[in-house]
Each structure stands twice: as C-alpha cells, then as structure tokens.
Design goal:
With 316 residues, this protein is of the alpha/beta class. It contains nine helices and 13 strands. The strands form three sheets. Strands 2-1-3-10-4 form a five-stranded mixed beta sheet, with helices on both faces. A five-stranded mixed beta sheet has the order 7-6-8-5-9, sandwiched between helices.
Length: 316
C-alpha cells in the first residue's frame, strides 16, 4: 500500500505542539499505513505579546495564518483549541472532528497555595481574559487585575517574576502539559464559567477534502461536538469575540443538553447568567434561545456599550 504523508498545522507553542502530537498519534493508531508530520506556524497572536488581543483583532489572530495555509494546500489539517476559534469558520473550511473534551474548567495557581476566597485584600491576579477578570471582579471586587499574556509556561513563570499573587488559566492546558502539581484550585463554574469550547480540540480541514475527513472522522466524539456546537451557537447569536466578557458551558446527560451562559460588564458589576435545557437534537436552537434570553435581560445594552468603544477590554 502506498504510504501517504499528511501535514498537520499547529501553532508553535509547547501546548499547541503537544495537542497536535496527540492528534497525530491518534490518527496513526487508527491508520498505521499513513505518515504524519507537524508543520509549526507562528500566528499573529503568538507574535503580539505586549498588547491585549481585543485591541488588535481578537481570537482569530491565533488561527488565521494556519487557516491560510490550509486553504492554500500547504497543510492537510489543522489542530486548534476550540476556544481560540472565531464564531464563524472561513468559507471552504470546516471542523472535521472534535475529540473528547478534557476538563473545561479554569484553575487558580497561587503563589502561596491560597484559594480564591483566601487571597489577601488587594491581591494581584494575572489574566488578560475579559471573561475571567469580570467574574473575578464580581466575586472579589478588591482584587487587582494584572494584564498577563504569553504561552502557558510563560504565564506560570510570570507568577513569580512579576510579583503576582495568583493567575487563572485553563485546566485543560495545565493537564495536557503535565503541570497539575501547580494547581491550587479548580474554580467551579458557579464562580468561573468557562470560555466557549474550552478544553476541546478542533481538527479543521478543507470542506471538499473527503479523504482527510475519512481519516479524522473517527476521532470525533459526538457528545463533545454537540456540547461545543451548542456553546458556539450561543457565541454566534451574541456576535461575541475577545472584546466581550461572555462564557458558556454545555453538559449532556442521556438525551438532554443543559447550557449555562453568561454576559457581564467588563468591571464585573453586572453579571447576567441563565440556563436553558432541552433535547440534545435541538442543541443549536438551545444556544440561540439562551443568547436571546440574556440579550433581552440586559445583555444587548452591555454588548452595545462594550463594542461601541466605551469599554476597553482584554481577551475572553
């Protein structure tokens, strides 16, 4: 049998490469006749580390160069963190598979191993996420938010070098890099609702590439896909991006899906939260319904205020 080499596009960070290597190993375990190589691509988001992403284009900055290579045929598939994916996928591309999700929660890593509630008054907490900072400010208005960019390894290091008391990062990345020993606290979603798609990987392919779809299709995890699609329907209805503090997490139990969503003021003074549920085959409709409900409850005013430029944000 002729051995075909497939090219897997990925960001060059250690976490991104680890994720892409995992996808590569899964593909080769199912298709041992294939060869697969990683193509590391430096994205604009990786190059800009001293400016909030909301000020320079949002989360699409982590995928656009990779998507351009995919459309041009330079790579055959791309591995992304689903939370980095813009609300709309580029024409000609699609998500060929979403493997089973890792833990979707956020974690607190603190210098003295103190949980969020026990951080001292006026503690300095590092994050460049609007979503995280709004929810922290809602729970602990006394905490000072310190902008923090960089790869996961860099952010953990900056906890010491920049004199921070704590940082908040995604549990999934910490676990994938084997850094669980650093975790002080898994933040419950009642305090910190995760980002849309957090903990899930997306394997992006060309829409018309049936052979690659056949290769990656076996990695698709139905429950994870349905949950992420519900969250992304919520995102799309809100027309959200890095400029807006929004969050959502879907859970599937038997044949029902429950989706909790959030829209907040940047300073955390107003935090709108609600839950919608229904049969799993209506997962996208539930996402839209929940978004509409929050828009009517005051979310529209919050979004208009932020997007008009009266609030300056960081990232989701």
């Amino acid at each position: 049998m002729t051995i075909k080499t497939i090219r897997i596009g990925t960001r060059a960070s250690r976490l991104a490469v680890t994720q892409a290597e995992w996808v590569r190993s899964q593909i080769l375990a199912i298709h041992p006749h294939l060869r697969a190589e990683l193509v590391r691509i430096k994205t604009t988001g990786d190059k800009i580390t001293d400016v909030a992403l909301a000020q320079v284009g949002g989360k699409g900055l982590f995928v656009k160069e990779i998507e351009a290579a995919l459309l041009a045929g330079g790579i055959d598939l791309a591995v992304h963190s689903m939370k980095d994916m813009p609300a709309e996928i580029l024409p000609g591309l699609c998500i060929g598979a979403i493997p089973e999700r890792e833990n979707s929660l956020d974690v607190l890593i603190s210098r003295n191993d103190r949980p969020l509630k026990d951080l001292p008054g006026g503690a300095r907490l590092g994050t460049s996420s609007l979503r995280r900072s709004a929810q922290v400010r809602h729970a602990r208005p006394d905490i000072i938010i310190h902008p923090l960019r960089g790869n996961l390894d860099t952010r953990i290091q900056k906890l010491k070098t920049e004199g921070l008391d704590a940082i908040i990062v995604a549990a999934a990345g910490v676990k994938r890099l084997g850094l669980e020993a650093h975790i002080t606290q898994y933040l419950p979603e009642t305090i910190m609702l995760p980002a849309i798609g957090q903990g899930a990987l997306g394997i992006e392919i060309r829409e018309d590439d049936a052979s690659i779809q056949d290769i990656v299709g076996s990695l698709d995890h139905r429950q994870t896909r349905l949950a992420v699609e519900a969250e992304r329907a919520f995102l799309q209805q809100l027309m959200g991006g890095c400029q807006v503090p929004i969050a959502a997490r879907a859970k599937i139990i038997d044949n029902r899906i429950e989706l909790t969503g959030l829209v907040a003021e940047v300073d955390g003074t107003v935090l709108l939260r609600d839950t919608a549920a229904g049969p799993v085959h209506q997962h996208r409709e539930i996402g839209v319904e929940l978004a509409d409900r929050l828009l009517e409850r005051g979310g529209r005013k919050i979004l208009e205020k932020i997007l008009s430029g009266s609030e300056k944000g960081l990232t989701t």
